[in-house]
Specification:
The chain has 473 residues and is an alpha+beta fold. It has a domain at 80-314 and 326-337: Glycosyltransferase (Alpha/alpha barrel). It has helices at residues 16-25, 47-59, 63-72, 75-79, 104-111, 122-141, 176-193, 201-216, 240-243, 271-291, 297-314, 350-353, 361-370, 399-407, 412-425, 450-466, and strands at 81-86, 89-94, 102-103, 147-148, 169-171, 269-270, 316-319, 323-326, 329-330, 336-337, 378-381, 384-387, 396-397, 435-437, 440-445. It has a 3-stranded antiparallel beta sheet. Strands 6-9-10 form a 3-stranded antiparallel beta sheet. The protein has a 3-stranded antiparallel beta sheet with strand order 13-14-15. A hairpin with a 5-residue loop joins strand 9 and strand 10 (336-337). It starts with 15 loop residues before the first helix and ends in a 7-residue tail after the last helix.
Length: 473
């Protein structure tokens, strides 16, 4: 189902048992309740991941953060991974958490932090290879879909959406990043392992579909084949103008009908996602060369040039307070949407997804803008500060955005601020959530959201390796 239907508001009343236990046992010895899935009930176990957890627990002074890391870092493996061999190839279906469906974005992000450990854990390597193989199947089934079922015959509750719905597809919201994340994961896997075996003829066919879909959604010649409408009370769950969205002036950028939050765009040119697409096409060329696979390199290079032109000409705005900044969305006619959303790709995350952006002056200005009250979805209250978005409404902070702020910072003070806010946000559960009230972290959505858990783990592990002193208080 749509994530919005699975929002679960927690409060002191609904989490009373756990909070009581947590308070009672948390004394001078700083012991914490066992909330991680028992070893015998975990979906997948990696000894390399377990060694990292043990190292962090042993070596950092902040035992609450160590406990949270133990719960969150392996949460994807513990609870969401379904790994098997199919036709002699590893295959891994990864659900997002409290929704039994596999998002191309979420599944990529959920296993991404484990990539550096593949060299020392063959089982982990095979599991991630299985994710790549499963994602290839998903793209070949429908490059416009964002979420899939393992059961090819399963019927979605959204089967009445006015789009081309097939069985085995959970949702068909066209989002650029859905095709970018699998390429990022594949490239990261190859860099860590040197293994090109996942990049077979099926993978090359999937990449051809990626190129075709990106070109169709540039809309240089008509609207393209994709449209989407849904009968819903939420405006962000459907697409206006007959399912094609508001008009754009073709400029080389790719249209995205939905954001990474699964909310509809206002202006179809989603800026951060187009930067991600450009970087992903570069990775595609590299992988095809490494694997000796034939793809239409001329089409990819032309596409990259066109995207680069659109990014250079139509995505930047002069701001009186911050200087030149990136808009969140544009339409090619001069229309701009100045904001940022917590979900990745976001403007904040540009230097995370495209490392070359970290020294870009426009990105630096934009980062200041999105982390200020000038961003209409930046919220600050008694429980913390951070970026939210329309998906769960106003005054809701997303731990993903707080972790991303830390991951994109080089400043000890800012990183420590993010660590402190995340430590205070778990509301006694030991896990991250989708969002929490800016004034009361015990009011949160989605108690089981594996992407947020794993990203928190990625952040803690990065700080542990680079700035361990920040984890000792």
């Amino acid at each position: 189902m749509n994530r919005r239907r699975f929002v679960k508001q927690a409060s002191l009343a609904t989490t009373g048992i756990l909070l009581s236990r947590y308070t009672n046992v948390w004394g001078s010895e700083q012991t914490f309740p066992t909330v991680r899935v028992a070893a015998g009930e975990r979906n997948f176990t990696s000894q390399a991941v377990e060694r990292v957890i043990a190292d962090v627990k042993r070596n950092i002074g902040n035992k609450e953060l160590a406990w949270m890391f133990e719960n969150c870092f392996p949460n994807t493996l513990d609870t969401t991974v379904d790994f098997e061999m199919i036709d002699g190839k590893p295959d891994t279906y990864v659900i997002t958490g409290d929704i039994d469906a596999m998002w191309l974005r979420d599944s990529s992000a959920q296993v991404w932090p484990y990539l550096p450990l593949c060299k020392e854990d063959e089982g982990l390597k095979q599991m991630i290879k299985g994710v790549i193989n499963r994602q290839t199947k998903c793209i070949l089934k429908d490059p416009y879909a964002n979420a899939f079922y393992k059961n090819e015959h399963k019927k979605s509750p959204w089967h009445t959406d006015q789009t081309i719905m097939q069985r085995g597809i959970h949702e068909r919201k066209w989002e650029i990043d859905s095709l970018c994340y699998p390429i990022r994961l594949a490239h990261g896997y190859w860099k860590e392992t040197g293994d090109t075996s996942p990049f077979d003829a099926q993978w090359a066919a999937a990449m051809a579909l990626v190129i075709k879909t990106f070109k169709e959604q540039q809309r240089l010649e008509g609207k393209g084949p994709y449209s989407f409408m849904r009968k819903t009370e939420f405006a962000t769950d459907s697409v206006p103008m007959g399912g094609y969205g508001y008009p754009v002036r073709p400029n080389g950028l790719i249209c995205s009908m939905f954001r990474p939050s699964d909310d509809a765009t206002v202006y179809p040119y989603l800026v951060a996602s187009n930067y991600f697409a450009f970087a992903s096409l570069e990775h595609m060329l590299t992988l095809a060369t490494a694997a000796k696979r034939t793809i239409d390199t001329d089409a990819v290079n032309d596409l990259m040039k066109q995207i680069a032109t659109g990014l250079a000409n139509d995505t930047k705005v002069k701001n009186g307070k911050f200087g030149e900044i990136f808009a969140y969305e544009v339409n090619g006619y001069g229309g701009v949407n100045l904001m940022d959303d917590a979900n990745v790709p976001s403007l904040l995350s540009l230097s995370y997804l495209v490392p070359a952006m970290k020294d870009d002056s426009t990105y630096k200005n934009t980062r200041k803008f999105v982390l200020s009250p000038e961003n209409p979805f930046f919220f600050k209250g008694k429980a913390g500060e951070g970026i939210g978005g329309p998906h769960v409404g106003m005054d809701q902070l997303w731990p993903i955005s707080i972790a991303m702020r830390g991951l994109t910072s080089n400043d000890d003070t800012e990183i420590k601020l993010c660590l402190d806010m995340l430590q205070r946000s778990h509301a006694g559960t030991g896990f991250m959530h989708e969002a929490f009230d800016k004034d009361d972290a015990t009011k949160y959505t989605r108690p089981w959201f594996a992407w947020a858990n794993t990203l928190f783990g990625e952040f803690i592990w990065k700080v542990y390796r680079e700035r361990q002193h920040l984890l000792n208080t």
